[in-house]
Amino acid sequence: MVGIGGIGMSALARYYLSEGFEVLGSDLEHSEIIEELEREGIKVFIGHNKENLPSNLDLLVFSQAVPKDSNPEIQEALRRGVKVLTYPQAVGEITKKKETIAVAGSHGKGTTLAFLTLIFLEAKLDPTVIIGTKLKELGNLNFRKGSSKWLLLEADEFSGAFLNYYPKIAVLTNIDLEHLEFFGTLERELEYFKKFGSNVDPEGALIVNFDDPNCIEVSKAYSGKVISFSLKDKEIDKVRKVLKLKGIHNLYNALAAFKVAKFLSLEEKIILKAISKFEGAWRRFQKKESKGILFITDYAHHPTELKFLIQAAKEEFPHKKIALIFQPHQIERFKILKEDFKKLFLSLPVHKLILTDVYLVPGRDKEEDPALLSKRVIQELSSIEPSKFFYLPFKPEELLNFIFQNFNYQWVVLLVGAGNIYNVFKKLP
């Protein structure tokens, strides 16, 4: 498995291991996930080399972040005539064997799937789960092996990955301008979502956010049963009453899972009990106190996600000041969304906003200076509001020193981004 340290790839590695295969993998750098895989008995090579491939290889799966044409392991497998699949192609093969429920959308996929997972466990439905985050209810893993017919799956739209999946039921959480480096336009993005919808079993259902015009448009192309969810629904008060997580986005996520469970005729009492138990996932509003300061880390890396994240922080901590330390994700993406981010940063109800270097995604980013764009954005913003906006280089120790010198118990400090800013959170004493 080439790029085994990725959140999806590592879940798939665990699936193959649970099926009795010997699993090996490679990645560019060591990580927390790779350490876990090694403890589970998977051999992981750091660095890509054709010598890493064993002589008796049956299958090579590679992450879409890995450049196929220049990767020596993929090229060697192709030369040998070994079966080679992308991550979504490999997962797609599993969706054909199982009754699959796939959660798609620009934001909220992981949390919605987490709610569904808890509901299925509460209802004793014993699902297999492949999720893009770690859940404490799954032993802090991103995978669960179940013995029933059900597969619960996060369906990512990046590079059209979800077109490989054939679900019985699919959820559309929302559709936003996202992955424009791949889609180019919103129109093309919607066409991909419509194609995904056409993969859903016509005997199944499409569960759709009817507060989102883009989702409504996509749902019109589906020939099977469409079930809507909206904050105007009569069930919303029941869900709100038991929901522990703050933020309107989590209300949507829980409601989507509720509607799937109702479609499957699960008992409302079981559904609401499961929703009430969920306290959050890895890197999703994850909290830690250090030296009297409350820290929150979150995976948010799109303007819409950041907006909802800050709303949730304000809702939970109305009397504290908020500092946002944000690591933008991927150069091309940040360039495309730069004006949206600037507009958002100016409107966010935070007291300090610190931008750090852009996280360069291995295999997807050219070697550019990760500091330039962040510095430029801060320059433009601080000319409007100098006391609010700062740039700091991404050096974990320096970031921590800055935080502990400038903030105290009156503050909530958010460490946000989909890259390695999580390592700063891990370093907190």
Description:
The protein is of the alpha/beta class and 429 residues long. It folds into three domains: 7-86, NAD(P)-binding Rossmann-like Domain (Rossmann fold); 98-277, Mur-like, catalytic domain (UDP-N-acetylmuramoyl-L-alanine:D-glutamate ligase, 3-Layer(aba) Sandwich); 286-427, Mur ligase, C-terminal domain (Protein-Tyrosine Phosphatase, Chain A, Alpha-Beta Complex). The protein is 40% helix and 19% strand. It has 17 helices and 17 strands. The protein has helices spanning 7-18, 32-39, 72-80, 87-97, 109-122, 180-183, 186-199, 213-219, 236-242, 248-263, 268-277, 303-316, 331-336, 338-347, 372-382, 396-406, 422-427; strands at 24-27, 43-46, 59-62, 83-86, 99-104, 128-135, 141-144, 150-154, 169-172, 205-209, 225-229, 286-290, 293-298, 321-326, 352-355, 389-391, 411-416. A seven-stranded mixed β-sheet has the order 7-6-8-5-9-10-11, with helices on both faces. The protein has a six-stranded mixed β-sheet with strand order 12-13-17-14-15-16. α15 (372-382) links the parallel β15 (352-355) and β16 (389-391). α5 crosses α10 and α7 crosses α8. The radius of gyration is 22 Å and the shape is globular. It starts with 6 loop residues before the first helix and ends with a helix.
